[in-house]
Amino acid sequence: MLAAGTPEDTICAIATSAGEGGIGIVRISGPNAVDIGSRVVRLRSKQSLQTLASHTLHLADILFAPVPSIGSRPAPETRHSTEQIIDEGLVVYMKAPRSFTAEDVIEIHCHGSWLVLQRVCEACVAAGARLAQAGEFTKRAFLNGRLDLSQAEAVLDTIRAKSELGLKLAQRQLRGELAQQVHRLRTRLVGLLAHLEAGIDFAAEDITFVGREEMILSLQETLAHVRQMLATAETGRILRDGVRVVIIGEPNVGKSSLLNSLLRESRAIVTDIPGTTRDIIEESVVWFGLQVTLVDTAGLRDTTDFVELEGIRRSKEAQNQADIVLYVLDGAQLAKIGVENVRLPSLVHEHLCVVNKIDLIKAAAIQPLFDALRAHTKWEVLPISAQTGEGLNALKQAIRAQFVKTSLEPDDGVIVTHVRHRMALERAEASLQESLASIERGIEPEFVAVDLRGAADALGEIVGAITSDEVLDRIFSEFCIGK
Ligand SMILES: Nc1nc2c(ncn2[C@@H]2O[C@H](COP(=O)(O)OP(=O)(O)OP(=O)(O)O)[C@@H](O)[C@H]2O)c(=O)[nH]1
Ligand SMILES: [Mg+2]
To answer: Which of 5, 219, 361, 482 is 20 to 30 A from 91 via CA?
Structure first.
């Protein structure tokens, strides 16, 4: 059930984004959409909305004072004196079930002025519509079976996508790639469950419905599929949300210079005074279709300066939220003190070590320095110069390669992008493991059935076949109003 109102309500909202635009759209959806639309628009062709062919556009005046419903319509002269024309625009009627919500939908396309759009919305409310809640159109599409839950989530991902790769994955999920795979696995489990339960019912008659070996094989295959999907979750999350790269190192090694060159703008203050950066500086870019958030931090050193200490605390906090840490060394200093005196911190995160300022090292000395460094540490080390830009492309490629390991072609299987899906798959994995262990130990089929049902339900949660109001409310409240 919807938190407020029911699907019998007709809802309306501004569907385009706030601000000025060439065109703005107000969307009306529900059983009375046509009736409400007829009170708000007057077609120039004098046709009534009811008679329009679905999915065709028609020029209309959009009226402020709601026109009384047909039947109680006043004489044309009185009607003319009370109504006000808000704007002129185009109207389209999308007949149920061939609309986004699978309900009757009227869209009013007017000029993209927020004031105009608000007045059109007010006119719709005065004519009997209710203002839609966040995500209510998509929620209706889900409740009416137009989309499953994973596709509804993909609608939001499409709207929010910040990178090409994120958009590509959202579109694949919207087309139902994940849903189909989940349905296949779930159907197989439900089939096995039916056999198992039938076996339980007819146990006394000694009929075996699925052989033990066959059951084990089928469960193992399903488990392997679930694990295959889980293995893509980390890449999926990064592709959808982007990767967070935190730059750390001692003062003056060129962290802020690196941030600036990667962003190609002078975002952070750079000086030759150690301890310049005191705060966290964060900025996003897109590299090869992948969204990357770069975070510059205060240089790490022993200090008694109160402000710098706070900066160092924040730097450590930022490290904990990193997908990858870039540890920056000063190459010029390295050449001077010798590689054997370099101490690299122990980092729990994925990390890359960059040796900066290689423009200050003699060309002939670079290779021996890196050979020694690679012998001295297990870390991957990359030469760069924030000043000349040398090595920055290789650095970007290396960061991408850490995360985009799977090919992104649809033929290579589904990629899991949502934490909610990952968690459900983990529950399915645990239940499948449990059921296999039970069969192998010769436990009663009744107990195996409980685990099989658990696995099927966990998969069902992904597509919304099994779900609670609370989960639905949480998912749809993330949407904007009008979607
Ligand atoms: N020659 C050369 N100088 C560099 C390079 N990168 C940075 N520098 C210089 O090194 C000094 C320190 O640079 P910053 O970017 O402020 O260093 P930081 O690591 O952010 O320093 P803190 O904020 O104090 O921790 C500045 O004088 C930069 O111009 C480089 O690749 N080559
Ligand atoms: Mg700095």
So the answer is: 5
Give the residue from 139, 154, 127 showing the smallest Cα distance to 100.
139
Q: Which atom of ligand 1 is nearest the CA belonging to 388?
A: 31
Report the chain's mean pLDDT, rounded to a whole number. Answer: 89
pTM, rounded to two decimals: 0.79
**Is there a single domain that holds both residue 219 and residue 256?**
no
Query: Stretch 104-129: mean pLDDT, rounded?
Result: 95
Domain boundary among 96, 122, 148: 148
State which of 246, 247, 250, 252 you would mutate to test the pocket of ligand 1, scoring each by most atoms of that ligand within 8 A of its C-beta.
252
* 157 within domain boundaries: no
Residues β-bridged to residue 325:
246, 351
Cα 39 from Cα 50, distance rounded (Å): 12
Q: Domain boundary residue among 403, 420, 455? A: 403
If you measure from the C-alpha of residue 309 to the centroid of ligand 2, how many angstroms do you get, rounded to a whole number? 14
The amino acid at residue 382 is L
Residues 255 and 178 grouped into a single domain: no
How many whole angstroms separate alpha carbon 438 and alpha carbon 440? 5
Instruction: Report the distance separating Cα 478 and Cα 156, nearest Å.
Output: 8
Same domain for 340 and 300? yes
The dihedral region occupied by 380, where left means phi > 0, alpha psi between -120 and 50, and beta the remainder, is beta
- In this structure, are 70 and 136 located in the same domain? yes
- Contact 332 CB / ligand 1 (< 6 Å): no
Rg value, the chain, Cα: 30
**pLDDT tens for each residue of 57-70:** 999 999 976 445 55
Cβ of 278 below 6 Å from ligand 1: no
Residue 247 Cα to ligand 2 middle (Å): 10
Q: Which domain holds residue 185?
A: 163-232+412-464
CATH number at residue 168: 1.20.120.430
| Closest ligand to the CA of 272 | 1
Let me know whether 251 and 309 are in one domain: yes
What pLDDT shows up at residue 78?
47
Residue 341 has φ and ψ, to the nearest 5°, of -95, 5
Tell me the per-residue pLDDT of 159-210, one tens digit each, with 9 for 90 and over. 989 888 889 999 999 999 999 999 999 999 999 998 888 877 666 555 555 6
| 416 and 390 both lie in a single domain | no
Write out pLDDT tens, residues 402-420: 887 766 665 667 999 999 9
Residue nearest to atom 24 of ligand 1 (CA): 275
Do 250 and 392 belong together in one domain? yes
Q: Convert the pLDDT of each residue in 207-237 to its tens digit.
A: 555 678 888 999 999 999 999 999 999 889 9
What is the reported pLDDT for 477? 86
Q: Out of 250, 263, 269, 270, give the residue to mutate to test ligand 1, the one with the largest number of ligand atoms within 8 Å of its CB.
A: 270
Taking the centre of ligand 2 as the mean of its atom positions, its distance from the CA of residue 269, in whole angstroms, is 7
Helix, strand, coil % over all residues of the chain, rounded to 5: 50, 15, 35
267 and 167 share a domain? no
